[in-house]
Amino acid sequence: MENLNLGKHISGQFNAELEHIRTQVMVMGGLVEQQLTDAINAMHQADEELARRVIEDDRKVNNMEVAIDEACVRIIAKRQPTASDLRLVMAITKTVSELERIGDVADKICRMALEKFSQQHKPLLVNLESLGRHTVQMLHDVLDAFARMDIDEAVRIYREDKKVDQEYEGIIRQLMTYMMEDPRSIPSVLTALACARSIERIGDRCQNICEFIFYFVKGQDFRHRSGDEVESLLAKK
Amino acid sequence: MENLNLGKHISGQFNAELEHIRTQVMVMGGLVEQQLTDAINAMHQADEELARRVIEDDRKVNNMEVAIDEACVRIIAKRQPTASDLRLVMAITKTVSELERIGDVADKICRMALEKFSQQHKPLLVNLESLGRHTVQMLHDVLDAFARMDIDEAVRIYREDKKVDQEYEGIIRQLMTYMMEDPRSIPSVLTALACARSIERIGDRCQNICEFIFYFVKGQDFRHRSGDEVESLLAKK
User: Fold this and answer.
1) Are the C-beta atoms of A205 and A96 separated by less than 8 Å?
2) A19 CB near a chain B CB, below 8 Å?
3) Which of B17, B149, B134 is nearest to B75 (CA)?
4) pLDDT tens, B128-179?
5) Backbone CA torsion sign across A36, A42, A43, A44
6) Where does the signal peptide begin and end (chains A, B) (predicted)?
7) Is A2 among the domain residues?
8) Quick check: is A26 in a domain?
9) For residue range A159-208, what is the model confidence (pLDDT) as tens digits?
């Protein structure tokens, strides 16, 4: 935790406030991870009750985003942080926005699972399970890296997204063959495709969180760089 | 412009800095609007050169996001803004992130238009043109509302998204019939569907920018409320 430089402030109260926000991010991240895991299970096992619970709990995720954002603005106004403290607060406000959108994916998967899938087309969803588990693991790891502001781990997770993309491409090809073979399956397959795309986007959002870790630790904005550029920028410092 | 409360600061330099960032947001917004208009024209007229130019210029949009974000962090560190100044800076940093993602849609449309459409399936894209023009107008209006922090206009634009959603639903239904009638069209139709979805998401992003306008003017976070709730909250104040 030493690279967080917490504990160096004259005001113990300021430390406590920063630490509290960080904890809140971890609580929110844990909830989102649970939501996503539940959504994938609900889809896979056609568990309607679980799906409904995930949809219900999306409100909690949304409320946490707003509360953490408010706490960030309050801390800026009151404590006037600079340097790494300010970077931490800015990284947090951007990270919770990504987490909220990952929460939306869980909600969306459950709504689709509840409404659109006829029993006959449930097997389509099997294709999505492994992609879903992959992104849950990525989310779990990036939250862990965020908690420790661990840049090496963030680099590893950043690279992982390429595998998610490849897996997604494979699923699209597979789903397309279903449609070609049986045009009646088209509506269900389209829903499965939309789910797959949302899940694939979770990988991108985890990559964004990695960039906020880079930003906090290195003090430099790494967004919109190519993978190679990111590697060489990180190596330089 | 009076509701921006600019010009009240003791430091003329601080005013100038805030005004400069606001101008940068408008420049970025103008560029994104142009990119989106060009992308829709490139798609509609199958103009490869224009499509290539849009893809090339996406870099400019990305760079502007990073530059404006850096300017926001600098102004927080140096000027320690509070109250409406701080809300303005926070609203700007979130708005440029939405604008950047709208820029990505322009880029994506052009990439798809260049790579995936066989001459035979170009008519599919006609369906998307009107949806595209609708969202360009929405973006244009929301930028205008942001420049003036005009809450009445923001409310009107916020409501407009419902129409975009309805138009999108109609397009999906229409595209689905193509696939059912001719399975050979499936790959092209899927591309058209992905374009339509990206365009529809622009409406959501404009709605988000409306929420940042509400936040700046009313000092309250309106995210994740239902449309009715937003209306009644706005009416109350």
Assistant:
1) no
2) no
3) B17
4) 999 999 999 999 999 999 999 999 999 999 999 999 999 999 999 999 998 9
5) positive
6) none
7) no
8) yes
9) 999 999 999 999 999 999 989 898 888 888 888 899 999 999 999 999 99
**According to the model, what pLDDT value does residue A237 have?**
55
DSSP B219: S
pLDDT at A100 over 90: yes
Residues on chain B touching A183 (C-beta within 8 angstroms):
179-180, 183
Identify from B73, B85, B87 which residue to disrupt to test chain A contact, counting A C-beta atoms within 10 A and taking the largest count.
Answer: B73
Chain B contact for A63, CB < 8 A?
A: yes
CB proximity B201 to A under 8 Å = no
Joined tokens for residue B83: 């109250």
If one counts the domains in chain B, the total is 1
Can you tell me whether residue B213 is helix, strand or coil? helix
Polymer length of chain A = 237
CATH of residue B210: 1.20.58.220
Interface predicted TM-score of the whole assembly (ipTM), two decimals:
0.90
Q: What does the DSSP assignment read for A124-166?
A: GGHHHHHHHHHHHHHHHHHHHHHHHT-HHHHHHHHHHHHHHHH
The confidence score (pLDDT) of residue A1 equals 45
Handedness of CA B51, B54, B59, B61 (dihedral sign): negative
Q: Which residue of B has its CA nearest to A187?
A: B176
